[in-house]
Specification:
mainly alpha, 5 helices, 2 domains
């Protein structure tokens, strides 16, 4: 899952212009990733425990947040993410 999120991050961070069809795909991904982040956000708190320092769920959640942050660098995606209920509060 972490590798897939890293691939998504690389695609999102490319500075090439995107078509409206690609933007629609990014928006659907943003919706999905936002939901995943909101469901799993508490996994990050497990990293405070030394025993759970390699917790995969926490690493996936952190990578989800990285991808969502990268998506905010595009105005269209930023506006879409700002409209998602609860995302800012969860973050």
């Amino acid at each position: 899952r972490v590798t897939l999120l890293e691939l998504i991050m690389a695609t999102v961070s490319e500075k090439n212009p995107v078509t409206s069809e690609e933007m629609d795909v990014f928006m659907r991904h943003a919706d999905f990733l936002s939901g995943c982040f909101q469901e799993k956000c508490e996994a990050v708190l497990k990293l405070t425990s030394a025993a759970d320092a390699e917790d995969e769920e926490a690493l996936v959640t952190i990578r989800l947040l990285d991808v969502l942050c990268e998506m905010t660098s595009n105005n269209g995606q930023l506006e879409h993410l700002q409209a998602l209920p609860g995302l800012l509060e969860t973050a």
